[in-house]
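step=predict obj=Mitochondrial import inner membrane translocase subunit Tim16-like n=133
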Amino acid sequence: MLKVIVQAVVAGSQVVGRAFTRALQQEWAASQQAAKRQGGGKQGTKSAVADLKKGLTIQEAKQILNVSDLNDVEKIQKNYDHLFAVNEKSKGGSFYLQSKVYRAKERIDEEIQDKMQKERSQTEEEQSPPPKT
């Protein structure tokens, strides 16, 4: 009797262990693919951190504000103003949707700021004279 119970526990543990291992492998593969989509390396890590911090990817933010080009600042602002006003609680709108619109704009602004900062640092590197030895 005890032998059968021990065998059942061992068999159950093996099944759970294999399933857990398989789940970990799948999660690892998914995280690697996500890192590749984000650009990999330091830039991918920075982008992933920004996504986690704001709770939105840049693609989601672009969809929410219905924009495709981050260089069109006027359209981004126009769409933001419209969506924010339409979802005003006093006008029967949704605070949840208004918050999503706000976070999307915030995420896009952060992305634009990062691009500008990157361009500035590249320009400074090009303009600075090489170090004297």
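step=describe
The chain has a mean pLDDT of 85.
step=end
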